[in-house]
């Protein structure tokens, strides 16, 4: 008789534990049902990138002094800088500047260490192509500024920061 009572007792405990687990999972499901959807319709909706986002590099040809600091600090020696030394003015003249974004790791060292600030990171992240040779940008392609996601009227922008709802004002007005 004793083994039968302990069997019923174990069965009851297991049943209560199973009901508790089902209740917990049901509460989690209900809490997710009240949330807003996370999915965006990509070509028509785009997320606004943060201001520290490291996208495609923008290059200003007129500011560059061909010092090659960007090549020296790059972990993969990526930027190709062609220059010619002008003997009459005793300065370097930049002939060509190119970056292959198929190899670039977007570390931002070239932008950070550039003494003339001729390099900057943009918010452009759509660099996919069918041919990998199209990712080799010369100074003309690097000089083009991308259209800002915020300024593009054909795309609905979605902020990445959650909207905080405050029930009480932070500072109360004294009348």
TrEMBL record:
[4Fe-4S] cluster 2 binds at residues 74, 104, 107, 110. Pfam families: Fer4_9 (PF13187). GO terms for biological process: photosynthesis, light reaction. Signal peptide: none annotated. Residues 55-84, 95-124 form the 4Fe-4S ferredoxin-type domain. It is a peripheral membrane protein. It catalyses: a plastoquinone + NADPH + (n+1) H(+)(in) = a plastoquinol + NADP(+) + n H(+)(out); a plastoquinone + NADH + (n+1) H(+)(in) = a plastoquinol + NAD(+) + n H(+)(out). Its main location: plastid. It comes from the Eukaryota. Gene3D superfamilies: 3.30.70.3270. [4Fe-4S] cluster 1 binds at residues 64, 67, 70, 114. Its cofactor is [4Fe-4S] cluster. GO terms for molecular function: 4 iron, 4 sulfur cluster binding; iron ion binding; NADH dehydrogenase (ubiquinone) activity; oxidoreductase activity, acting on NAD(P)H, quinone or similar compound as acceptor; quinone binding. One of its GO terms (cellular component) is chloroplast thylakoid membrane. Keywords: 4Fe-4S, Chloroplast, Iron, Iron-sulfur, Membrane, Metal-binding, NAD, NADP, Plastid, Plastoquinone, Quinone, Repeat, Thylakoid, Translocase. NDH is composed of at least 16 different subunits, 5 of which are encoded in the nucleus. Belongs to the complex I 23 kDa subunit family. This is NAD(P)H-quinone oxidoreductase subunit I, chloroplastic. It comes from Euonymus japonicus (Japanese spindletree). The gene is ndhI.
